[in-house]
Every structure is written in structure tokens, then in C-alpha cells.
Amino acid sequence: MPTYIVLLGPPGVGKGTQARILAEKTGLKHVSSGDLFRENLKNQTELGQLAKSYMDKGELVPDDVTINMIKARISQPDCEAGAILDGFPRTPAQADALEVMLKDFNGAVNTVPFITAAEEILVERAGGRWTCRAQGHIYHEKFNPPKQVGVCDIDGSEVYQRDDDKVEMVAKRIRVYIEQTMPLVEYYRGAGVLAEIDGAQAVDNVTQSLLSALDKSSKAK
Ligand code: AMP
Q: What is the value of pTM for the model shown?
């Protein structure tokens, strides 16, 4: 049976960073809805243009488009063993749709690590975040700068600040998260798959907490 992990938490808490590390450690594919939208934008697809109009305002892209994009992605052969979902679902309608689509793959959401941190930490992390243009590798101007300013250590592409990582936009995205995504905490707690993780810890310690939560949930099954 495939394994699906949903990383839940506010913008800037470190979901992308941790998803990449977990993907390496577990061999599961990292599927980030934000990265998929940004890739569409880079390739100037119709979906990218549509998503941009919402992303620029710090708002959520409509559920139907987002759900279809994720469904297409996790249907690919490289997700046969499952996936680490980062940034999806973000609304109860997306969570319901995910449940239905995973049934088609004979799977279900196995674990939902819910990573939290105080708002000041989120603003500091997202506000100082720099992202690699080619593959979305993540840096922080203070905590984890690339070796050469503006250049990704891993693939040599340009490292830039996302428009929606500017401080005013981060605050708006946190508000959207509280209103539209927070209900998923109770949704997944009710399903018995939620694991609370302290995202204020150093990156390595968050990874350790995540790995032990995944281990615990796989033993419980
Ligand atoms: P992220 O990279 O996860 O911070 O996402 C960046 C932006 O992409 C968000 O602010 C939304 O505009 C859009 N987005 C990403 N994931 C979703 C989703 N699951 N539902 C709706 N919009 C999303």
C-alpha cells in the first residue's frame, strides 16, 4: 500500500525544507502544490497565469484547479509508492477530494505532521527566505545563505525572493492560513492521524521529531 504524508502548518514554518529532507530519507516523492504552480508560471502555462493572479494577492488558488493539478501529479509512476504532500490540502474541500483520490490508489493519508511556530518566527523565516529558480531549493539570508550570494549551491541557478515572501504578504498568507487551512487540524485530529511537531526547533531537531512521528504511526498500523 502506498504511503501518503501530509505536511500541515503555516507559511514559513519549514514545510518545504522538511519535505525535501524527508523525501530523501524515505524515498517518497516530494509533491509541493506551490512549486507546481511556480513551475507552471515559469513555463507560462494557462494554469500558471491563473494561479499567479491568486498567488500575487496571497490568496488560495481555487479548489477545483488545485485538486486537478495534484491528482495529475500523484497519478504519475514516480508517486506509485506514495508522496509527501507539502502545501496540499489547504481547505476542507481539498482534504475531502484527496481522500477520494487516494482510494483510487488503494491508499489513505497515513500521517499528518502538524508543524507549528509563533508568528514572529514565521515572518522571520518566510521574510528572509530565498528560493532557487530552477528547482525550488530553499535558503535563508541569515540562517542558511547560499555559499555565493544569489546562486544556488545545488544547481547553480539564480536564487531569488518570492514576491509573496515579502513581509506584508507573509502576514496576509498567515491570515488566509488561519481562516481556511486551520480547520484541517481538527479534521485530521478526528481521523487519528495528526502528529504535533514543534517547528520552532532547529532544522535537524524538527527532522528528528518528524521521523519519530512517522515511525510511531507506521508501528501503530
Ligand atoms: P506555498 O509555496 O505552499 O507557500 O504556496 C504559494 C502559493 O500558491 C499560495 O499562497 C497559494 O496562492 C498557492 N497555493 C499553494 N498550494 C495551494 C493549495 N493547496 N490551494 C490553493 N492555493 C495554493
A: 0.95
